[in-house]
């Protein structure tokens, strides 16, 4: 009965399903949430996005010698920047349907593109419509708390002398280096036109993909170490979790390849020939990012194989112990049974050394068996 | 014997094959039915479709200022709408061979297309024949009761100033938003020609795919949660069931890509240049739907892996308990056997504390073993 | 010993390898045969085909108003039909090398094509050589007795005003509907030229693929039901068997796609522009057949997964029962051992109720364990 | 102890690892050797091939009426054949660097091609350089002793009126049918030019691929039969072995497709238009060979699945027996324990029929259990 | 208890998790390190590379008759070599940002290319910018100590009469054969232009890939032998380790294919028509390398399957032993229990030969069972 209590005790603390669930919970619940996000199909004709409370508009208006940076209250205030010879970057943070539509009407953006800007969960794409080049893609961020990849949709509209960017979240973007470089007189960015500004934006977005991948790579690495050290359910949950993040990653990177390829092949007059080379550079980077994400996937598959093998290995170990215990116990149990029979005539039963001989046999036979097993390379 | 009865009892209520079957039945029988539908190969030269009892014909005849909506009794009554400058949408609900053939003869639809309209289980496709643009595809609905995807074939014939749609089921379609918009004077739909009407139809059909996918996504998500919480046969049945729904989904979405791509590449005079942009928008959506269905597939594969792992895990747990029980019992059984032997001389047999010492050893050895196992990280 | 006899008995009737083999035999031996056929690589420069004993030649000679149908004894008798304005269908049943070569010489068929007609196991293909359009493909039949797909090679030679078909087996083909339609004066077939006749043949062959697939689909469906109800070795044999049939199917369908695509792209003068539309229709069908065969494959893979899962499930059930029996027996065995020891002083040994208390403990502990296991969700 | 001896005995003869190894050895060691060959990466700038001891040169010099066949001692003796109107086939057996270089210099073969001729382990390819068409591919032989595919590199140089072939091994090639046909006056081969000779060679090489595949197919078939009858380690070794042979096969066939495709697309003046049709025929054959090798692969995968399933099945059988034995023994052991306890008061202990009742219960309970298991469909 | 001690002992030496970890450690820790390297995503706009302490510049300045080889201290000293009719090879070992930028400015290398030269972890690529042909790829080395593939980035800039190479590590490269050949007057390398020098470099780099693959192939082969002989955790660790090396290999080889393909398609004036043939030769080699790496992958997959099968086999063996021991022990245990019951009337209990009969039965029944099992082909 002691064994049984011990077992029960053990159980409650080590092998109860509840505990496994407890291990799983932080990951798995989040995981289901993640699945929800990945599976999300966005109906595309209705704008389901909740309008932002407040639209922040920032305008950078510059040429190589002058820079003017203004915070605007209304979208209409940005309209005068359109037809000036200097380059303007009009950054709209927080998407508010009426403002975006007003801007679209003024800048001659096609209604379908306005719809795309306002919609959610779009696949990255580029379009050239009526003298405007439009890119929609996602900026990725790595959330260190949840170890997950977050995305924010950004729309870039490249016109004759201006670039308009529409972002969802005013609190973050990846364009701080642009803001820094714009402050430097005669910097390359200040000398070149709006297309170079657009290139710089795409370059920063793609570079940030690498940053996110590096963080994710660190997670994969630590998951691998965990799998090697101790393959438990938690490792499996981590592998599953990371696989989902890789789906998010790939879903964002793969179409950006086409997007940038489209810009390079485009013969739009908005793009200076000298800038094409720069877009080709971004293209090389996005190809590299794609290759890398494939490598990540290979590593994950190989890790899952490793996990399964380790789990099997542990189980095989348990099986071996069982087999050996069963074999070693066999003679002792049988000998005990033999001399426990209630026959009148049991040889050596009345012998003084009988008991010791029997117990000796009980001890020696297992030792001999162990030697045999050892020789056979069983353990 | 108590153990045995207990076992039997347990069995009848918990592990009997019948019970598993009972779990499986609602899903699996339906599943086989589904397989039947998926595997269905439709002979294509004979029209096996049973003729509809009644053909309902509705005509919307409009330009930007006037709208006339009529319910017709006979297909011949729709013929005058053909050669008028306004746009006509002739919606035929319920396919009746003689009516369709009459309409085909009047509107100059090629006999092969008439055959396609009347046939069943066709692969989505588009065709341009003799001044007519023909699209055949399926509308998908999500049946919330059976959690399955249902499909209804629709044929869209775009002519000079008219669009004819042939549907199987009069009780449902996805065109209600069109009916709403048609009622609004000077709405975009009313201002533009028949090609824009055709675009709106395809757009609504594709948008409805997203709606269906969202519902299916919710099923996948709940299946995943079930797999994580409690991996039993029922979860497996659900995974199998969902895999089949994904086959249905993919089978419908993949060829629609080619269909819409074909319309964009088409140089038909029926399509206004301004409308091309709208078809490109639908093309973006269908690509997105396809990508999404691939993501669904990845999630399903990853879920099946999770299921298998969970099932293995549970079994490993059982194995561990067996191994531990076997080991813990070993010394007690052997000690009991040793002192149960009928030798005359058994040391400590006449000692008052002999019994208590033996039982103490029986209890202490398992405790010591538990400590050893614990240290070794066995549980 | 009773247990042992029982076991042996059980064994002979239920689990002996011989029995499994008996299950397997009808399928597996046939299966190996099938593998032989699938793996068959036919050396291509020697004609290994055994010449048919008898060549049956049937000629249909028709225009829209007249039809002449003749059974010929010799291949030479068909030669006059060549240069007449009416359309001739010369159907050669049973391939006899000298006859085929004679016909080839007369109709100007290239020696390489003659070789192809006479060879076996060719991959479907089309060729345009010296004013002749040549198609080689297989007619598929479904053998309901063996549930397997049988194939018969057919060569179709389309010339200026004639179609020559070479078949292996005089007893069957898929052209009966043609024979029916030919009897109808002014039927479309009678009005159009030889290219339309050729289209009708390909259409019937491809339509018959759907018929075969439907039959195979029914087999797959019944196999699935068997797997769900009772996953035994027989189901595995069936799955393996069906996988081989799918290889046969795919091997025949995939290249026919290229064949018909080639006819559509061909600019041969033998093909009327009006007929191209009909070939496109056949092309749509063969694409659909190919898609369907991919769906069949997906269903088979999913079924095999289901099988493996069911087998594992059964084994897990057995493991659980073992674990539970082991645990439930543990206390009874130990208690029996404890009170079986031959010490002089055994507490409660002389107590009248000692025996009943011990047996009571033996019964109560398992019951308590069962309750514990139940609560833990173990079964 | 008897059990134990029995077990040991059993072991030495049936389950010892050594025995498994013995099974594996003939295959596996060879297998590693094979892996070595497959993995062999040949550095390509140094000619590592050991020069042949002796170069055998045979020249066939022919037109439709004359044939001259000569064995040459030196490569220089073949030089006069170059500029004659008749066709010459110069067959060089045994590759000796100085000879090949001398020939290369005379016939205007580019140094890089000379390097290719002398190198080993090259990927099949074709090249057109300076008025010469060069093909490098492998002849495959099936070694019936080791059941493995052997390869011999052959270089075919097609010039204006000559074909030079370079082979490694003088003892064998696949060109005997050419030698036969050359002896026949006015045979097609004798009437046509050097390009037709080149076609005949490629045709024979590709036909021989089918011969090798047929032999390999027979091995696969016999392996499948073995797997079905008796899935043991030996079958696994065979499957692994055959998988490697398939890699060798595919590695040789896949690039030959491109090679012959290249010849067909080539616009070299060396190729008569009439011969193109023949190369297309070879192309059809090599496509067929490739398809077939894919089928072989599918069969192998399906066979491996079968193997794994059979092994699992056997194990499940063992598990079932264990479970049943455990359950059947349970009551007897417990009953024995109950009445073996040393209490003073044991009911029925002094009853004459007590012993027989207990033993009867020991026998009846298992029988009852067997009936129960049977009903539940457990075995 | 002896059994238990033996078990414990056994355990510590043979099956303890620590030991498995010890096996794994040298591989796995390195493995994680490797994963880190493979997963490394390099942000590309900042130059993160640490500047080399010292830049070594070596210039080979040659035409067919003269060779001048100089070690330079400063990058500026290499500038005069630019505009001379002879060919110059300027080899820069150790990348120092200011030096590279100075050289870039002088030789007219685009700033983006300068960035690429200085960056790390780039994907191999080629570019043609402003009269310069730029190749970036990796040289691979095989580290025999760690059995891993190491890579060093090299940038090759081909200008009018010069080739500039930028290497990271001054201590090693694969260009020694070039240095040898340059010393030989009138060698082909000395006679041809800078494009031939560039070809020679690419050829040597690609040839070295084969060298590395051969070494890796030897590792794979020895791993396979280990798997066949003794499938333990160490083998699994090796397989995982090798899989990662194959990812590194493929990652380097695949894009080099595009690189060299790009050079062949390039119409740059820097490339002599005669040299194209040589680049095609390199292209053949890199295709072969790629094919080979695919073969490596197939072998690895097949090896992993073999491993899993062997592990399962071992476990099955253990299971069989368990089953047999359980069955053989069954009768002895039950017989012991039967005659150990404390009934007054036990038949044959007072018989002299009772004990011997019972023990005889205990021995004979297992022997009979063994014979039965044997006949059934169980072991």
From TrEMBL, chains A, B, C, D, E:
Membrane protein topology class: Multi-pass membrane protein
Gene Ontology MF, one: magnesium ion transmembrane transporter activity
Main location per the UniProt record: membrane
Family per similarity comment: Belongs to the CorA metal ion transporter (MIT) (TC 1.A.35) family.
GO CC, any one term: plasma membrane
InterPro entries: CorA_cytoplasmic_dom (IPR045861), CorA_TM1_TM2 (IPR045863), Mg/Co-transport_prot_CorA (IPR004488), MgTranspt_CorA/ZnTranspt_ZntB (IPR002523)
Function (record text): Mediates influx of magnesium ions. Alternates between open and closed states. Activated by low cytoplasmic Mg(2+) levels. Inactive when cytoplasmic Mg(2+) levels are high.
Name of this chain's protein: Magnesium transport protein CorA
UniProt-listed Gene3D superfamilies: CorA soluble domain-like (3.30.460.20), Magnesium transport protein CorA, transmembrane region (1.20.58.340)
Keyword Metal-binding carried by entry: no
Catalytic activity as recorded in UniProt: Mg(2+)(in) = Mg(2+)(out)
SUPFAM superfamilies in alphabetical order: CorA soluble domain-like, Magnesium transport protein CorA, transmembrane region
Gene for this chain: corA
PANTHER family assigned: CORA FAMILY METAL ION TRANSPORTER (EUROFUNG) (PTHR46494:SF1)
UniProt keyword Transmembrane present: yes
TM region positions: 321-341, 353-373
Pfam families recorded: CorA (PF01544)
Swiss-Prot/TrEMBL keywords: Cell membrane, Ion transport, Magnesium, Membrane, Transmembrane, Transmembrane helix, Transport
């Amino acid at each position: 009965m002691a064994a049984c209590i011990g077992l029960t005790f053990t159980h409650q603390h080590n092998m109860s399903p509840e505990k496994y669930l407890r291990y799983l919970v932080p990951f798995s619940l989040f995981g289901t949430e993640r699945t929800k996000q990945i599976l999300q199909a966005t109906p595309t004709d209705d704008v389901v996005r909740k309008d932002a409370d407040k639209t922040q508009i920032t305008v950078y208006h510059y040429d190589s010698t002058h820079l003017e940076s203004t915070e605007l209250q209304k979208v209409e205030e940005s309209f005068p920047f359109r037809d000036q010879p200097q380059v303007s970057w009009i950054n709209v943070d927080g998407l508010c349907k009426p403002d975006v539509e007003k801007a679209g009407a003024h800048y001659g953006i096609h209604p379908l593109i306005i719809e795309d800007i306002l919609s959610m969960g779009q696949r990255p794409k580029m379009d050239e419509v009526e003298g405007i080049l439009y890119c929609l893609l996602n900026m990725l961020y790595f959330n260190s708390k949840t170890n997950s990849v977050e995305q924010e949709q950004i729309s870039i509209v490249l016109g004759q002398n201006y670039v308009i960017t529409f972002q969802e979240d005013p609190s973050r973007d990846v364009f701080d280096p642009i803001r820094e470089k714009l402050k430097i007189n005669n910097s390359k960015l200040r000398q070149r036109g709006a297309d170079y500004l657009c290139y710089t934006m795409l370059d920063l977005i793609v570079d940030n993909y690498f940053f996110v991948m590096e963080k994710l790579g660190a997670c994969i690495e630590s998951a691998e170490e965990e799998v090697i050290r101790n393959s438990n359910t938690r490792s499996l949950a981590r592998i599953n979790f990371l696989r989902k993040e890789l789906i998010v990653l790939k879903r964002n990177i793969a179409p950006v390849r086409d997007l940038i390829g489209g810009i390079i092949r485009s013969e739009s007059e908005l793009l200076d020939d000298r800038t094409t080379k720069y877009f080709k550079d971004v293209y090389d980077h996005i190809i590299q990012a794609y290759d890398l994400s494939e490598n990540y996937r290979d590593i994950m598959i190989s890790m899952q194989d490793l996990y399964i093998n380790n789990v099997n290995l542990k189980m095989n170990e348990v099986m071996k112990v069982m087999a050996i215990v069963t074999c070693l116990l066999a003679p002792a149990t049988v000998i005990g049974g033999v001399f426990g029979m209630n026959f009148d005539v049991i040889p050596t039963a009345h012998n003084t050394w009988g008991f010791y001989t029997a117990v000796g046999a009980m001890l020696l036979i297992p030792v001999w068996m162990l030697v045999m097993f050892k020789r056979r390379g069983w353990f």
